[in-house]
Amino acid sequence: xxxxxxxxxxxCIVQFQMEARAQTAYLQSSQVFADDIAExxxxxxxxxxxxxxxxxxxxxxxxxxxxxxxxxxxMFESGDAFHRMRWRIAILPRHSGNLRVPTLRVGDFxxxxxxxxxxxxxxxxxxxxxxxxxxxxxxxxPYVGQQTRITMRVMHNIPLFEGGLIEPEFPNSxxxxxxxxxxxxxxxxGRELEVQEHNLALVAHSHGxxxxxPAIYRGRISSGTNLSGSxxxxxxxxxxxxxxxxxxxxxxxxxxxxxxxxxxxxxLALDVQWDxxxxxxxxxDSLGLTLSIEAKGLAAEALPAxxxxxxxxxxxxxxxxxxxSNRFDGQALIAxxxxxxxxxxxxxxxxxxxxxxxxxxxVDEETEKVATVNASNWTARAPASDSSSxxxxxxxxxxxxxxxxxxxxxxxxxxxxxxVGIVVFLLIAGLLVYVKPxxxxxxxxxRQWLDKHRNRRLLKQACRTGNPALAxxxxxxxGRARWPCDNINGLYQIETRINSDLMAEELRxxxxxxxxxxGSDWNGRRLWRLLTAEAGKVSGLRRARERSLPSLYxxxx
Length: 557
What we know:
Distance between the termini: 135 Å
Oligomer: single chain
Number of strands: 30
Helix content: 10-25%
């Protein structure tokens, strides 16, 4: 019985040594300066690796847990293989003194309790090794929606490495970055300091007090001295330097502001840029314009996109999606909104583009201002008819084209030659009566052919040079000639009448180019090839119909 008990104990000891050779916990350094970061290291050897989740809540009383990392490495000892699991816990002491690091549970094992000595930094160490973080806001009493410039600086006179600035979280607000950090040197209290500066713009969502937490720098320094003050054994230290926190007094919009959109800015400009406008506007033509708003000290998301509203039955407005952008000019946020509009004339008459006004609040002068754009007016005429009035022909005995009430024959002796003259005169008058409509018809057909040829040339030129506005105008005229009985005034009407997916796609691309931002790259060569093929197909169908007509004089068998 005794032998069995001894054997079982030996087996348990061997099994325990195989499963966990050693478990330990220690501090990387048992003493640190205040505002330095200590490292708690836990190691566990086992045949089967298992990185347990650690509960570090017991450390929160005296330490701030900054980071937990873990690793596993394969080890060999006396020909036996095992795994070494390691946890590294970065802790920041909350105050000076001898702080107790309590026991932590790791799987089935408990780590030993430890003690960390936190030594206040001496005045000499503070003055010789400066690492300071500053946090500034300008202005500190902004309006809701107004930009506040946040500046964060890391200033030091000793080398920094393996670190970086941790920006604070900004509650109930939006932030916009001002590009990469800037580096420069300054002199403070007779000491030269290197500066790493970060800038961003903050826009608060609501009024009231807004707390901004401290900005923090964490990294390593090489100070040249250890805790004992001697040069020997000096090592790098992990540091944590924090700025003071800030409080912003965010103001609501003032009662005297009468605008529909709250726009607090240092500058604001409203502008309208028109495309080239034809001298003689007519129904079916389009007017293109770009409306832009640019403001300084304001975010682009606050700029309104509903300024243009024309209450007129003579035009139809197509609006493109607005584009917004934010940039910095070195000191302030510059917001910009651009929106493209196309007005298609649907009826002849006077076209009125109203004056635009946008009220905004000047935060520098604390007063309301108005940005304006002047009104514009045009006159559009009805589209020209395909036929024109006939040439003016003066008949004998009259000065206009109205039918005569009768021929006035002078009283003279009627001779044989007189009868011949009267007959000739009557024949000429009769020919003129019939020739006039013929000439009118021929003149109209000739002008129609010339207009068609001229429009075809313009359409070809527009497609090959990538001019979408000219292509649309020529294409609508082509559609009116192709379907004279229909009221063609838009590309979609042409698309529905041509049973071609390729043509429909090209027309949609043309429409997108018309209502996109200026500078869009439109290529109409494929559209021109499809139109040429469509014209050839129409001519072929016309010839086929003519060949299918029955003969006027069918041959008898």
